[in-house]
Amino acid sequence: MNAANLSRLLLLAALWGGSFLFMRIAAPVLGAVPTAFGRVVLGTAGLLGVVALMRLPLAFHGKFRATLVLGAINSGVPFLMFAFAARILPAGYSAILNATTPLMGVAIGALAFGEALTWPKALGVFVGLMGVVILTGAGPIAMTAATLWGVVACLVATACYGLAGFLTKRWISQRGGLDSRIVALGSQLGAVVLLLPFAIWDTATHPVAWREVTATVWLSMLVMGLLCTSLAYVLYFKLIAEVGPMKALTVTFLIPLFGVLWGALVLDEATTTAHALGGGLIAAALWLVLRPSAVSQPQPPVRT
Prior knowledge:
Number of strands: 0
Keywords: Membrane, Transmembrane, Transmembrane helix
Protein name: Drug/metabolite transporter (DMT)-like permease
Transmembrane segments: 41-60, 67-89, 95-113, 122-142, 148-168, 180-201, 213-236, 248-267, 273-290
Number of helices: 12
Structural class: mainly alpha
Helix content: over 70%
Mean pLDDT: 88
Domain EamA: 9-136, 148-290
Membrane topology: Multi-pass membrane protein
Distance between the termini: 24 Å
């Protein structure tokens, strides 16, 4: 990997790791639904700008409905789940739990798509689960019902990412393919459609005191939508084109490091042995699942 692509990889990891910081800032103030909805609206706007600047034709070739459904699964539900978790969990927790995405892909592939479950993959899933248990049970925040629900929300999000990888192959790749930037735009539109009724309901039942929202919260939303979503999509697809999907997926190992780093630097979140042990086990699990000899399933997205 040359210097330019390594820089892209590090920037992508910093952006996706930073998304957990910005959700942690915005979600407790705005609520989970407005945070997730605002992110996908801004992400859609940013991707529309990218498509316009690159003069890409808005041609979905009969796959528009598929991209909308993929967006609901791959962006709408996960962003909402992570925003819900951000009201409860430190940013570093969510960033580490996000790394279970490939493990979810292995489990879903074996259960629903007939993928072979080899011993390294099975061991990887088990080791990853142990990492989640250690992080949850021995971390710096008390184990409560709310904490547990936050962890469950993160795992629901990563399960959606894992499922979306297989559905993308079935609905897009095996039907002739589609420009990845158009898929990204369609998926964000799908997330907007999914979250819109929830946003309307939430606004009606839990109105936000918008005048009291600080500039920090608004800036966090802008950065999360335009940089951590729109720009991150462009970087990710550029990396896939330049170095291939396997090397691009090494960003999965780096996201937790940046997520924990940003949380500690900006929000003074504690870093403990549980972060190292739990995160280390999840990293080992990722190596077992993603090592070249073990890869046969379509690689699930790692977007955050």
